[in-house]
Fold this protein.
Amino acid sequence: MECLRSKARTPLNGTGLIGKEPWWKAAVFYQVYPASFKDSSAEGWGDIPGLISELDYLADLGVDCVWLSPVFESPQADMGYDVSDYQAIYAPYGTVVDVDRLTAECHARDMKLILDLVVNHTSVEHAWFKESRSSKTSPKRDWYIWRPARYDSHGRRIPPTNWRGYFAGPTWTWDEDTQEYYLHLYAPDQPDLNWENDECREAIYNDTMRFWLDRGVDGFRIDTVNKYSKRTEYVDAPVTDPQSDSQPAPEMWCNGPRIHEFIREMNQKVLAPYNAVSVGELSNMASPHDVIPYVSASAKELDMVFEFSMIRLGTGGGFGPKYIYRPYTLSTFKETVKKFQTFIEGTDAWTTVFCENHDNGRAVSRFGDTSTPELWRASAKTLALWQITLTGTLFLYQGQEIGMVNMPSEWGIEEYKDVESRNFYQEAVDSGDEQRVRDTMHGLRILARDHSRIPFQWDGGKKNAGFSEGDRTWMRVHDGFGEINAMKQRGDQGSVLEFWKRALRLRKRFKDLFVHGRFTALEEGDEKRFVYLKESTTESGGNRRALVVMNWSKEVQKCVDVKKSLGCEGADEVRLLFSTTDRGPKMVGGEHEAALRPWEGRVYVNFEAGDI
Ligand code: NOJ
């Protein structure tokens, strides 16, 4: 194998020249959960002016595109994922003019802005649903999914199917006035739109998408994108949980028969004409191969999707005991990462890299180690190193860059505000099974969506961590904000924040390897170390390689044979590009010490990198 000594020429990725790539492949996206980011009005609830005031912070971090979670008018049954007016802004967040200003302020900093498009369902308070439920003959009746009741052998009314929804309980709610059930995959407050109806689809394109694209936003994160097409026979799912009236049924309403047609239409009619970027939320995928049709460039559907196999590790499954924690091994974790790193090779599809969002616990609490401040810092940096060396478009979630952790384990259920957490907890209580209640609480402490939704920790010396000057905040501020906050980390070269900044710059500088490179897993069965190779091919046919070696444990581990893994002949051909330790590994006899400290990560390369 050849080791390049000189600076490589323009590198190639697996499928073509990087020079031709769209902007969003090497871009860093940053998700803002607006209720918890920054409050400018002392109401204890974040807002758009608050976000605007921190755009310089994001630009300095290296962010290229802000993804703003829903800010539209909403009763907030599911934190804005229940929209009652797509063209108005929920007053505590601000106004449409504030969003216009946000767009302009992002653009002024060379950043883009994408909004969250929630069009699988609306709120029950949306005018479309109010009209639809007003009578069976309403012109909008068919914009939602209405079905008559069934009756059991005792003559009791039962829902049209036995399907179970996401937030526990059935997917159907009875409407007394019109004597029919309506479908909702999530809360009863979130009725599903009927994408089979042509007028309804046109209204979605026009009133939600074009409205915002015309105002200058750059695209959308698309909520629940593979659930628009349901199986329209509306039949029962097989009984897999005999204890319950409702059954897991994703095969009935996910990846349905017309899903690709609907998404292609959305692309053709709206996304493509505006050159808008799209990243869809794609759940319940059986295999990576099923993901390809959604993100193959030639299929003209979506630019990117989020696939959740890795981030869902540890959960008890989406429709069963989701919050009964299920331990897993590092090799399973690595296997999942590998699957979603390699599945695009040899195709024209693309992938994403992320390990946090508003629907999951904090990564450093789940995958790293928060048992001591040293291990917290080391593991937060190693998780950063892992993320920035993976292929695909990188998405960061607010607070990840300062290593924010889960809510303290002493906090009780009253601090958990999320509809899903509360419903699963209540279901456990209602079962009368105390062990189940304890197990659910244990799972919630690791996995609940609430952990990522507590206020951003800006400043250890300020009221409410600098998130809000109000007397109360909508969720409790973490007790440890004095230790973990942005102010404390700014300018401290050993901090998680400064590490992320350097790491993001490095990712972009060597994007051939990190954003686009081919991924090869090494030491796959190792339960303590996470090791892989990234490779890219230059125009001249040369081969650049990066070896990522991470100690994924609190004990010292031996480093791998770096020369051998990189395919280099001599020690002088190997360069340490980057390391999570402040001064890099110690030198022993002209080489780096073989011992990897707890949660230490290193990146070695086979080429001269110049100053970094
Ligand atoms: C996925 C969103 O990320 C989640 O927060 C929400 O509850 C559901 N979709 C329903 O919109």
